[in-house]
Amino acid sequence: xxxxxxxxxxxxxxxxxxxxxxxxxxxxxxxxAAPRQDTGSRHAARFxxxxxxxxxxxxxxxxRYQCATIKVPLDHRxxxxxxxxxxxxxxxxxxxxxxxxxxxxxxxxxxGPGLDLPLYLSGEMPRSVTDRxxxxxxxxxxxxxxxxxxxxxxxxxxxxxxxxxxxxxxVAWAKTVADKCRAQAGDLLPHMTTRNTARDMDIxxxxxxxxxxxxxxxxxxxxxxxxYTQLFPRRADRFVLDSAVDPKLMWREMFRVWAPEAExxxxxxxxxxxxxxxxxxxxxxxxxxxxxxxxxxERADRDPIVVGTEKLTGTDIRxxxxxxxxxxxxxxxxxxxxxxxxxxxxxxxxxxxxxSTDNLVSSxxxxxxxxxxxxxxxxxxxxxxxxxxxxxxLFGDFASNINPCAFWxxxxxxxxxxxxxxxxxxxxxxxxxxxxxxxxxGMHRALKGSRLVTVDEGEGHGVAYGMAAGPANRCxxxxxxxxxxxxxxPAKDVTCRATPGGKPTKPASPAFSx
Length: 514
Hints:
With 514 residues, the chain is α/β, with parallel strands linked by helices. The protein has 17 helices and 14 strands. The protein is globular.
């Protein structure tokens, strides 16, 4: 889910491998192609001719970090109707003589606020980039300071993924969330979509006086960037998409893909851990390591394992560790901790994600359910969950389970089909739990003018500019920097080797960002 500025990571994720070698040769980006400009948003002059009242964002932030609020239509098909607030921020280019334009950014989600992202990126991007671009942030509609959606969800209702027994508990939860959101924010819900956020970005472009925008989007932010290239292909300049969603899977299938992708990650972890049996004592062969884990799950389902103040069932363990198996050292440490706790040994508290806010979870479902229709019959989810539990035992029942979209009102616009030749650069770790390599390849196929940079054996969600779990991958980041500076994409797709070591800094979260 939403990526907060990634300094607060709680879980121990480490990347493997060695730094990659030289940057590849570069060629000019393919020209923007076939799709016509979006006709669902004819920006009225009252929106495009606004003059932001820029002010220092806060007394405790640098003066160069400025904030303002502009107005955008709630329904872009009805620009004379209700208007809402869009909170925006900027840090001007460091060298006015070298300035190229603006670089918008999105940290992920759906549900991630991006107002403070320029401040963070100004310390993570090289000066060669920050000298040339105004760094522009914004809280997407429905999020943070941009007309936030709050459904009034309790702490229990904000928890996801979930897998109640019996199945009726899952149905009741999903319906409760949908009903609360409809009651609290019904007029907003149909319009808090990725498509409308992309239209907001184009109004922001016009307000800033720019003919084009460049963009850095992470996780869900890659979906937002791709939709912008589809709606406004001639206004997209240099787009970098880090850890990519597959546009064809938005959104139920993006959740479901976590189940099959977890199986090879678990097998890789079992092999890695067996090779280090002297360290972790979880088994000397992959089969023994796997058996150790599943015995702990079975034990916890019979008798929850007490870790600190928590009682963990086998279902809890599977839900939490699915993500960790993509970062082998982290998973080995946590399974060893569970083994010791099950044996009654004193252990530290089990790491946990920061509590999700009402706005964060409300906006997640608002975007996901507003973007694309979902099956309506709860029986569809029950059947899928049972079948996928057998096929993908680690996470299949979670990934296919029911969610609030089953009870949401139908989207008011069709799904945006991404299929264009706009030049973009996609960065992707091989072992990414939230947006797997397979979904980045799906984005690459949809954006036919793109190049894909794959970090071989790279672990974790996020690759460049402070978004990685550990040190940035220099090969991938330098490729992105070269593209932002020159506008020239690599001549072909690039493979980088993973960066070794480094302690993680990002918080775990339940959807696409982390």
